[in-house]
């Protein structure tokens, strides 16, 4: 199993607030899983806990990537192991150029995996090619990371990072929010281009719209810190039409 | 303590300190200048913790008769600006080393040793030596600068008449653990001329430098300084610059380590449309690191621009101080004055003390100042780590980004790049 989450329970470190109350989720290599669910149900928390953000305490359960215990690893080790999170709110970093950021990230991962670093020339070529396919203006690459980027540009920048880092397991947290129709298509094409037998996706979204472009194999509904229902693509359509009321009523 | 008692205490301490003092032998005009400077020290008294601009920094070890010894340090790296074609003037423990220095002849610039210039009956330097320093006390006493003018044992006087093909590099080396060096340089950049000065190295266990720069109309002076990495060294530097019409003065100082550094910079914009940029960055670790930038910019003409940009990276209980003032005199309309001082505190024990001030007597001016103190942004750090960048490397990257704004003040990219590399090296070595 590529990503294997069992009974994951998470509370906030600072407060006595349980957010994840036993999440069970398996993502196989080659598959796209979608997670939908009401605001505040714990979707972003799940993605942050998997990527190793501070501020949470795991009180139970496990999360493994290719059999490796993710929760034991530092965030950078998880990245080197192949985990990638496209942030719901990408972070602005003044003073750090986008190119420096991309190259440092790629080389850090390569180094951690014992692979040779990429040369400047190869790196430039790689970035130019990927940026072009996402229609990212080369000028944007010269600016500091996400500084002055529009909401949609930030999301495209996340996908650019994903395309360059080529992670095994990609988590996309509301990458569709803030995207116009054309950008949604570009981003989806970017994701679809990466779909292959060895790679898994976990796509968090509120809208069926994205799933029209990135057809999921499995759809999960998350509510109050648990996966409460799992089905095929038709589950997303059901949410789109009727909201969460029926589904949540059914499982309650 | 009552004011009178404090004053008496200062007078007594100053008299005791100056009692055995003998001014260096010099020719007529220089002797006069030294005596006048000594008179200023006596009148002002040596600095005291209670003085307004010494509250954050203890001056005792700077004004004491004897310096504290400081271990010699071999940085084991290439000398700074080694790849630049430059005219090197080497001082070892504050004494000019002619052998180690380059030939002083260079088109567009006249360089003399202070003692030679001082021995002449008539010399242009007479109108600058101690003069800019004396004017610099108008609002605030700067007794250590006056003491420097009085007691400097060596230095150079430089007159720039054209645009010399290379920069002049003042190299301050050390040989002894106990040297107390007092250097004073005078620079006059004539109308339309332009020069770049580089100044690097620790210089002595205790180094005092005075630099007076007279920038004539349409002239330009760039000064890039890097203070030595010797952990135990102390330094007190004073730069006084006077700017004529449409002239430019830009300075950047990078400081690594040292137990105590006090860098004062006093700039007076006296001609219209003059531009002054004063910037600096320091990196220090440990409770013994104390770094103080004290800047005073006076606008006394119309349409002038001044910028102060200071960044301090402090770790492990290090202390940073910034005291910066912009004074806009009556009639100095259209003044554009900017001041920012920021510290990056890499742990909870480091501290930054700031005293930003504006004093404005003109009504049509744009002046702003700001001071911030903060830690590494945890969101940015996590973002980098989530992309695979290790914690130390990510912290260093964010630290370099923090300092980058100050480095941008350096006009010449090549110098900025070299300093950036040194910074990165320091960060790597000091990584937690
Ligand atoms: N650091 C925090 N401090 C306080 N509350 C938090 C924190 N992080 C998460 N929460 C709370 O945990 C719950 C789950 O938040 P989370 O961001 O995971 O939801 P979500 O499913 O991603 O919602 P949305 O669809 O709005 O993005 C919310 O009630 C949220 O307020
Ligand atoms: Mg969310």
Automatic annotation (TrEMBL), chain A:
Q: Which SMART domains match?
A: AAA (SM00382)
Known Gene3D superfamilies for this protein?
Answer: P-loop containing nucleotide triphosphate hydrolases (3.40.50.300)
Q: Name the domain of life this protein comes from.
A: Bacteria
Q: Which CDD domains match?
A: ABC_FeS_Assembly
Q: Which UniProt keywords apply?
A: ATP-binding, Nucleotide-binding
Domain ABC transporter per the UniProt entry, residue ranges: 5-249
PANTHER family, per database record: ABC TRANSPORTER I FAMILY MEMBER 6, CHLOROPLASTIC
Q: What is the recorded name of this protein?
A: Suf C, ATPase
User: Which species?
Assistant: Oceanicola granulosus (strain ATCC BAA-861 / DSM 15982 / KCTC 12143 / HTCC2516)
UniProtKB/TrEMBL annotation, chain B:
SUF system FeS cluster assembly SufBD core domain mapped to chain residues:
179-402
GO BP, one annotated term: iron-sulfur cluster assembly
Q: Which domain of life is it from?
A: Bacteria
What SUPFAM superfamilies is this protein classified in?
Stabilizer of iron transporter SufD
Q: What is this protein called?
A: FeS assembly protein SufD
Please tell me the species this chain comes from: Oceanicola granulosus (strain ATCC BAA-861 / DSM 15982 / KCTC 12143 / HTCC2516)
């Amino acid at each position: 199993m590529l990503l294997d989450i069992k009974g994951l329970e998470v509370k906030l470190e600072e407060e006595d607030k349980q957010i994840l109350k036993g999440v069970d989720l398996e993502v196989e290599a080659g598959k796209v899983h979608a997670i939908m669910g009401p605001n505040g149900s714990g979707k972003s928390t799940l993605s942050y806990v998997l990527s190793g953000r501070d501020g949470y305490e795991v009180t139970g359960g496990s999360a493994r990537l290719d059999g490796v215990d993710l929760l034991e690893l530092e965030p950078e080790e998880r990245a080197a192991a192949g985990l990638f999170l496209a942030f719901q709110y990408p972070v602005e970093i003044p003073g750090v150029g986008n190119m420096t950021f991309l190259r440092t990230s790629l080389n850090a991962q390569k180094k951690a995996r014992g692979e040779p670093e990429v040369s400047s020339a190869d790196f430039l070529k790689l970035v130019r090619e990927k940026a072009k396919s996402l229609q990212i203006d080369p000028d944007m690459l010269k600016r500091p990371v996400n500084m002055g980027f529009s909401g949609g540009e930030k999301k495209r920048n996340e996908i650019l990072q994903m395309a360059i880092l080529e992670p095994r397991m990609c988590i996309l947290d509301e990458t569709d929010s803030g995207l116009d129709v054309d950008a949604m298509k570009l981003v989806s094409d970017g994701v679809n281009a990466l779909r292959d037998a060895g790679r898994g996706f976990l796509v968090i979204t509120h809208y069926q719209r994205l799933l029209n472009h990135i057809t999921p194999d499995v759809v999960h509904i998350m509510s109050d810190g648990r996966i409460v229902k799992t089905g095929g693509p038709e589950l997303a359509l059901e949410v789109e039409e009727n909201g969460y009321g029926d589904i949540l009523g059914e499982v309650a | 303590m009552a004011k009178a008692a404090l004053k008496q205490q200062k007078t007594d301490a100053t008299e005791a300190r100056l009692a055995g003092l003998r001014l260096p032998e010099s020719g007529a005009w220089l002797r006069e200048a030294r005596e006048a400077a000594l008179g200023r020290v006596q009148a002002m008294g040596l600095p005291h913790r209670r003085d307004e601009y010494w509250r954050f920094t203890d001056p005792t070890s700077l004004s004491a008769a004897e310096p504290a010894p400081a271990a010699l340090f071999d940085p084991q790296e290439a000398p700074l600006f080694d790849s630049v074609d430059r005219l090197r003037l080497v001082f070892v423990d504050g004494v000019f080393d002619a052998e180690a220095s380059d030939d002083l002849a260079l088109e567009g610039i006249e360089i003399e040793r202070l003692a030679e210039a001082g021995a002449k009956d008539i010399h242009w330097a007479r109108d600058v030596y101690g003069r800019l320093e004396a004017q610099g006390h108008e609002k605030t006493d700067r007794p250590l600068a006056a003491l420097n003018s009085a007691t400097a044992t060596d230095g150079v006087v430089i007159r720039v008449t054209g645009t010399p093909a290379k920069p002049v590099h003042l190299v301050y080396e050390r040989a002894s653990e106990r040297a107390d060096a007092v250097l004073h340089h005078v620079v006059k950049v004539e109308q339309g001329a332009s020069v770049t000065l580089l100044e690097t190295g620790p210089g002595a266990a205790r180094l005092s430098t005075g630099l007076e720069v007279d920038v004539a109309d349409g002239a330009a002076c760039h000064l890039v300084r890097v203070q030595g990495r010797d952990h135990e060294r102390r330094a007190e530097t004073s730069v006084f610059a006077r700017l004529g019409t449409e002239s430019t003065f830009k300075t950047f100082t990078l400081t690594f380590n040292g137990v105590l550094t006090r860098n004062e910079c006093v700039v007076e914009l006296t001609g219209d449309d003059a531009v002054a940029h004063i910037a600096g960055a320091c990196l220090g670790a440990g409770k013994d690191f104390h770094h103080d930038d004290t800047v005073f910019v006076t606008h006394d003409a119309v349409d002038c621009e001044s910028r102060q940009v200071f960044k301090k990276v402090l770790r492990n209980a290090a202390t940073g101080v910034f005291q910066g003032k912009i004074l806009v005199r009556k009639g100095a309309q259209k003044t554009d004055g900017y001041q920012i001082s920021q510290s990056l505190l890499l742990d909870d024990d480091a501290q930054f003390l700031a005293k930003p001030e504006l004093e404005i007597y003109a009504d049509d001016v744009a002046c702003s100042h700001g001071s911030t103190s903060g830690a590494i942004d945890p969101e940015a750090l996590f973002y980098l780590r989530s992309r695979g960048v290790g914690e130390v490397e990510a912290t260093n990257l964010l630290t370099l980004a923090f300092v980058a704004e100050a480095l941008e003040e350096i006009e010449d990219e090549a110098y900025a790049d070299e300093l950036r590399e040194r910074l990165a090296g320091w960060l790597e070595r000091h990584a937690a």
